[in-house]
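3.2 Worked example (two chains)
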Amino acid sequence: MSGKRALITGISGMVGSHLADYLLENTDWDIYGLCRWRSPLDNIQALVPLANAERRVFFLYGDLRDYMSIDRAVAKAAPDYVFHLAAQSFPAASFDSPLDTLETNVQGTYRVLEAIRQRKPSAIVHVCSSSEVFGRVAKDSLPINEECSFHPASPYAISKVGTDLVGRHFAEAYGMMVMVTRMFTHTGP
């Protein structure tokens, strides 16, 4: 046992569940997964027997809109690595619920990073942003790279600009090891 611990927010989502599978197969880390009480658990059904048999998978309940639940999860996990994947991730839905999208994604990311700063500031943190921050890019500006400016075209994209900036803020203001990636559209089982 390495004694390393990873916290995956959004473990019940497609990306989070596949990341948990990968970490279980390729590391000896303990995996702590944050899920909302109302999240569908279809993607993590295969992890449940592993949680019981190997005692390497631990499920924690919390909501990005509730700092106390996030703080409790971070305290329990005491993570060396954090993969912050939880979000309201549907651009179309963000037009129906823009404020919920902003609160979940921007303030939720702030809550996660603040809990880490208070509880385990040495953790290495991955914050998941989105290529949606770039919006519609002119052909003469292709290919997209990190130097491209933000032109968000939906409340979701605006929330991911905020997520991106919150991650940078914690890295710069507090010296935390936070990396932000701008994920492009991905599909899978």
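3.2.1 Second chain
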Amino acid sequence: MKRRSKSRLRTGNLAMGYCFSLPVMIFLFIFIFLSIAYCFYMSFFEWKLFDLGKDKTFVGLDNYIRIFQDGIFGQAVGNTLIIVFVCLTLETVLGFLIALTLWNLKRTLRVLQTILLLPMITAPVVVALIWRYIYDPQFGMLNYVLRNTIGIGDIAWLGDESTSLMSVMVVDIWQMTPFTILILFAAMTGISEDWIEAAQVDGAKFWRIVRKIILPALMPILMFILLMRTMDLFKIFDTVYVLTKGGPGFSTETLSMYTYKVGFSQYEMGYAMALSIVTLVGIMLISCFYMRRSKKLEE
């Protein structure tokens, strides 16, 4: 009787859980999976944004073939990969070092912890607008400081192809490094103090403790951060749009920026959807790689 009552209770709990999950699953199915399926289907057609009532021309794989013959797409991929590599590396390294410093100082810098999180909780568009004024060649604070300290003349940070991509990356690093700090600092506070004390008793120095205890304990969290930030950086749009709109030329063109221009400036929706699908597949492959690495680390 007890076993039957327990099994009924479990069945009831499962049914209740499914009932609560059902609205979310329906929402995901309609607004995400169906949207992706429709986007994939329409990527085989050639149609303009304002030709919704007209028959669309089936072109098969032409849109996908065109992608790999598109020089601008190649440059957008290159710029996106540079942004992903540089921003991911610097945000992870800086975030880890700052989080380690805060963790080592314990509660003495709570105000500093709050200040460090301010860029992350500010909207990307607002952050980009602030930095656009900082980068202004004539009236920007950055050029003002450089002019009055080391005598460097006015630099068009966003208007020069040699500095525009770097300037965009600086903004993203400034805004999103606090995300890494927050996650890693929270994870560090969960590391057992007994491990640290035992290592100190054995004569281990601080950096040896970091290398042998803290870093191994943080590896699953680091993989999570790398996955989330990689996905975000592959989709970077608002910062680029406000700062440069992909210019000058195509020096800051990213995958999302180029897809937007194709769809809403050139009105080639079929080609834009093909670009979106290719980007989605790329993100999914990278996500699978990170997830497999995370499983190996857990094992």
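3.3 Remarks
The chain has a mean pLDDT of 87.
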